[in-house]
Amino acid sequence: MSYCFEPIGVVHSCFAEKFAIPRQPSLAPAARAVLELYPPFDQPEALQGLEGISHLWLLFVFHAAASGPEHLRVRPPRLGGNQRIGVFASRSTHRPNPIGQSVVKLEAIEPGRLLLSGIDLLDGTPVLDIKPYVPYADSVAPAYNHLAEQPPALIPVSWSPEALVQADVEASRLHQPVQELIEQCLTQDPKPAYQQPGPERVYGVRFWDINVRWHYPEPGRIRVLSVTPV
Ligand code: SAM
C-alpha cells in the first residue's frame, strides 16, 4: 500500500544551503522563514484560530536528502559522525520516508502566508501539514533521550571589523537580524566534527543572498571574515 501527499505550501527560508543549518529548530531564534500556502490553504478559513497559537509543528519533506528502505542505520553528526545508530533513534534526514517535523515559532499571520522563526528548514522545503503545538501534551516532563541529552556545545564567535560593518549593511538591506543569525548558527560549529582545520582554511555558507566566510584562528574558535551579497 502506498500513499501520495501534495504539499500545502513551501518554505522560503534564510538557509540557501544545508550546511550550517542548526540540527534542530529553536537553536537559532534569528532564523526566519515565510511559509507560502498554496490554494486553497491560503484562504482565511484555513488559518482561523492561529492567532491564539505561539508555536506550530511543521510536517515537511526532506526534499534535498536521499531516503529509502536501505537507510536502517545512520551516523548522526552529534555522535561525531562515526557511530551508527538505528534510523528510528535519530532525526537523520536519511529515512525510510523523507518526512521531517519541526516546532517553529509563529511570528505573524499574513494573507496566504505565515511568518516563522527558529526554523531548521532549507529554502524551498515543501510542507505537508501544519499542526498547533499543544504545550500540555507535547512538552513531556519526565522524558529522556540518552543519545541527545544536551543541545550542541557552543563555541565563541568573533568578528573582523569589516565583517561586522558588512553584516550591519546587509541587515538594513534585508530587514533581517543578520548578525544574530550568523552568530547563532556558527556558534554551533557547522563543520564536520572530524575536521581540524588550520587558520588558513576558510569556510563559507549562504544565508538569504549573502555569502558568509569564516575561519578557525585556533581550534574551537570562529572568526567571521566577510559578509557579502552574492
Ligand atoms: N527538526 C527536523 C526533524 O527532526 O525531523 C529536522 C532535523 S534534521 C537533523 C535537520 C537538518 O536537516 C538541518 O541541519 C538541515 O541540514 C537538514 N534539512 C533541512 N531542511 C531540509 C530539506 N528540505 N531537505 C534536506 N535536508 C534538510
Automatic annotation (TrEMBL):
Keywords: Methyltransferase, S-adenosyl-L-methionine, Transferase
A single GO molecular function term of this UniProt record: tRNA (L-threonylcarbamoyladenosine(37)-C2) methyltransferase activity
Gene3D superfamilies: YaeB-like
GO biological process: methylation
PROSITE patterns for the chain: TSAA_1, TSAA_2
The TsaA-like domain, residue ranges: 5-142
PANTHER family referenced in this protein's UniProt entry, alphabetically: TRNA (ADENINE(37)-N6)-METHYLTRANSFERASE (PTHR12818:SF0)
Sequence similarity: Belongs to the tRNA methyltransferase O family.
NCBIfam families reported for this sequence: tRNA_TsaA (TIGR00104)
Full protein name: tRNA (N6-threonylcarbamoyladenosine(37)-N6)-methyltransferase TrmO
Organism from which the protein derives: Pseudomonas jilinensis
Gene from which the chain derives: tsaA
